[in-house]
Amino acid sequence: MGQFWTWSQWADSIKSCFEKCFWIPNDTQDPEISYNHGAYKDSFGSSAKFTDNQLRPNFLVTMTVLMCIYMHKFSFYSLLQLIPSQRGNIKQAPSLFTPERAWDALQIVKAQLVGPLGIKTLGPNDWAYRGYYDNSNESTDFSLAKGFNYHQGPEWLWLTGYYLRALLYFGRHLARINPKSYGHLANEVLADCQAHLARLDDHLYSSPWRSLPELTNFNGSVRIPFNKNSF
């Protein structure tokens, strides 16, 4: 018979193992993961092995879901409007993430994955990166044909919200717990979020479709329209 675990035991086990398994230390000497040091792994124990260490934005979802669990009464827009005197109402950072490590990982995302509108689905320093999606591609290059690279670099917009919320939370949290080193982040993250939202707003009103795209290609370039005859 299997061992009985309580929910608390599950939580403690996940907490004790999470960064040990998923965070890539800054001082790692392992050449297979050193090119993404400071970030969080995309997976752990994958059959392909190398995919564990690819720089992808999925950990942004984990950050934000945990934040919502701990801060369920705050919406994104209420976070934007928080004034310094209200910061004491913010609960402790999600305990799976060391705040300083989480912030450093977010800076890696900002430098390598954030596009004008969306978030790259794979780091551009990866050998498998293909940043231009075209589902009408009829070439013999399997990495591109029929839009096979859908998850290999095009910039998805749905991830943008997770990035902005994580940036806003961890930036302000660090500013509160360590104002001497991180106090400047309180206003900087707000400005970053507003700037990105402004770009989305500009695109929304300038688009002939009056909408946002599902994804863009490298650096926000417009993707090739869907070809209904490509199947």
From TrEMBL:
Stretches assigned to the Glycogen debranching enzyme C-terminal domain: 5-70, 84-221
GO molecular function, one term: amylo-alpha-1,6-glucosidase activity
Pfam family, one: GDE_C
Biological process according to GO: glycogen catabolic process
InterPro entries (UniProt xref): 6-hairpin_glycosidase_sf, 6hp_glycosidase-like_sf, AGL/Gdb1, GDE_C
This protein's name: Glycogen debranching enzyme C-terminal domain-containing protein
